[in-house]
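Example S7 (structure tokens).
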């Protein structure tokens, strides 16, 4: 693997603010935000479920989970960038490795230490957290690293993403927090509902994420659903999946099948459904920037779920 340097690699000691700015870009901010919100949301759901008061130990356990998961996040997205430098120079030339803001050695050191810290911190704070982070790193490694490199296969690539984001993170973290709060590892119906929503929603993220990267994937023979089915079809499938998710949540609200405030659930998802309908009409599939903005919009909808769902639990 070789790197075509565009810029001189940044030095932390010479310009720490500039280096930290590149590091923030390297960490893929939308994934860092998504990871942080998922940890915090599951913490709040556990508090509401077990009617637990916030204590210093509980805040410490929350911070441990946040730091371990953030380090794991940086490892996964960083490894992907290390293996995709040439592709990113076409699809995402602003990324630090693709632009030359980070050298290959810098990228490898960040990825290596992030993965190591993620595992150490996770197992220090608890077995369930350690298992959650370990499984996430294993799947993230298989996703990017040859010879397995599951991202080459559209179905397996999507499976990796919604398995980690949808299943492992939600169930693993709730088991961790429940064990911290009540010394018992259980999954309550509320978390199963959130997990089902996130699994299906993450399918939309997994299949749409390659639409803005069509050019680079095509040149380097990375088979994606976008190349197989076309941008228009993927857009319609993505739209349909998110629509299904919101209609499902609205239905759950009307059926009152869990310990969730039904009106918060119904009204919030009706509002998001209207926002989705409005925003989808503004997408130009011939404009790469327009596609990229819609992809970021999908992530914002994902973020909102991790804010709204705990609220619905607290107001029950």
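Recovered sequence:
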């Amino acid at each position: 693997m070789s790197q075509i340097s565009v810029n001189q690699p940044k030095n932390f000691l010479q310009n720490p603010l500039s280096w930290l700015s590149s590091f923030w870009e390297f960490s893929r901010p939308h994934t860092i935000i998504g990871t942080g919100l998922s940890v915090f949301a599951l913490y709040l759901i556990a508090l509401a479920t077990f009617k637990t008061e916030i204590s210093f130990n509980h805040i410490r356990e929350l911070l441990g989970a946040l730091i371990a998961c953030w380090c794991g996040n940086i490892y996964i997205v960083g490894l992907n960038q290390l293996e995709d430098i040439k592709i990113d120079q076409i699809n995402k030339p602003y990324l630090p490795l693709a632009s030359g803001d980070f050298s290959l050695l810098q990228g490898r050191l960040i990825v290596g230490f992030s993965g190591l810290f993620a595992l150490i911190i996770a197992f220090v704070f608890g077995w369930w957290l350690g298992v959650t982070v370990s499984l996430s790193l294993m799947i993230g490694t298989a996703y990017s690293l040859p010879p397995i490199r599951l991202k080459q296969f559209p179905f397996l690539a999507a499976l990796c993403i919604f398995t980690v984001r949808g299943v492992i993170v939600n169930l693993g973290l709730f088991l961790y927090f429940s064990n911290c709060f009540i010394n018992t590892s259980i999954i309550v119906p509320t978390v199963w509902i959130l997990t089902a929503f996130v699994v299906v929603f993450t399918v939309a993220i997994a299949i749409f994420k390659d639409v803005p990267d069509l050019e680079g994937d095509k040149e380097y023979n990375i088979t994606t659903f976008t190349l197989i089915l076309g941008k228009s079809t993927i857009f319609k499938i993505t739209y349909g999946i998110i629509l299904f998710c919101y209609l499902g949540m609205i239905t759950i609200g009307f059926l009152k099948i869990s310990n969730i405030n039904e009106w918060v659930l119904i009204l919030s998802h009706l509002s998001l459904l209207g926002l989705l309908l409005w925003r989808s009409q503004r997408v130009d599939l011939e404009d790469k920037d327009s596609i990229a903005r819609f992809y970021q919009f999908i992530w914002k909808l994902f973020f909102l779920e991790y804010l709204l769902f705990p609220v619905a639990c607290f107001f029950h």
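Notes on this example. Residues 154-182 form the longest helix (29 residues).
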